[in-house]
Design a protein that fits this description.
Length: 155
């Protein structure tokens, strides 16, 4: 029985994520942000505008199915604003996890950054004026702390 257990353990391979992830990348910063909760005035404006849009949709079409469909589309479109997003900066790159998607990009793929009041936009398209990228909300992290880590990899 002991030999069989040894054979099994020698055949098992460690997962590539556990070996390559811990050996190559070091976590520099991790935080979670929920902009909807952190900015109550903007959140209230968002809710009122969504309700007005849904009411207008119901008045125009008189069908509740269109309202339900619109709620689904609005939820999917604004999920990173409504629900918590988890950000992780490592020596290898940026990891963004939200309700419907997870994105990981290496630092060399980013071409620039644009600082905003509530976050930083990391550009990964061609040129500094590209509209492709990730917006990282600062949340409870201090902007200087986040920008210092990003500044080490993106100039």
């Amino acid at each position: 029985m002991k030999k069989q257990a040894n054979k099994r353990s020698s055949k098992e391979k460690p997962s590539p994520r556990s070996t390559s992830g811990s050996a190559q990348e070091v976590e520099l910063l991790r935080w979670t942000a929920t902009p909807f909760r952190e900015e109550p005035k903007k959140g209230a404006i968002f809710v009122v505008s969504c309700l007005l849009f849904l009411a207008l949709l119901y008045i125009l079409y008189r069908e509740i199915i269109w309202v339900v469909l619109a709620v689904g589309v609005l939820t999917a479109a604004y999920s990173s604003y409504i629900f918590p997003s988890h950000y992780r900066l490592t020596t290898a790159g940026v990891d963004v996890k939200s309700l419907f998607h997870r994105t990981t990009r290496a630092w060399p793929q980013y071409t620039g950054m644009r600082k905003h009041v509530d976050g930083v936009f990391l550009v990964y398209g061609i040129g500094r004026q590209s509209k492709l990228g990730h917006f990282l909300y600062f949340g409870d992290k201090k902007p200087e702390e986040v920008l210092a880590v990003i500044g080490r990899f993106i100039t």
